Amino acid sequence: MRSYSPITTNEDMQLAKAIKQGDQHSLGILYDKYAPALTGIISRITNEKKLTESILHNSFLKFWQQAIQYNPSTSSLFTWLTGIVRKTAWEEVNTNNGVRTSADESFQHTAFDLVYYQGLNYNEAATTLQTTVSVINNSIKLAMSNLKQNAEK
């Protein structure tokens, strides 16, 4: 099993370019590279093996259909895939028809990471996570509040 790198590598850029051009073999390589990590993310959201597998499959299908929208100057390929996976997973498990709420702790952590550790601005983070700037803003406020509460304990 290969490990993944959250930094966009030359290999990732070549895979993304090939996928944008319709190369299905490259999609398979990308799947082999990132499926284990993405499965872990989905599992923390669903806790159901069959649903996790279905979400992973649907996420790669979405990536295939939306690959032309990927911009390596905005985020790493792994970060972009993570956004698709999280959105797809929450669409499957949320009772409110997949509308993400800023109260989702896992999403808060991802938004916080993109802005504070990876240096994306709120617009870029919203694009990467396929949500609105206001959801990013609220998620980061909640994440910071949670950090403060944990530090005070």
Describe the structure.
With 153 residues, the chain is mainly alpha-helical. The chain is 71% helix and 0% strand. It contains 7 helices and no strands. The chain has helices at 10-20, 24-46, 49-66, 77-93, 105-117, 122-128, 133-152. Helix 3 crosses helix 4. The longest helix is centred in the first third of the chain and has 23 residues, at 24-46. It is globular. The chain starts with 9 loop residues before the first helix and ends with a helix.
In short:
This protein has helices at residues 10-20, 24-46, 49-66, 77-93, 105-117, 122-128, 133-152. It has 153 residues and is an all-alpha fold.
Features of this protein?
153 residues, mainly alpha, 7 helices, 71% helix, globular
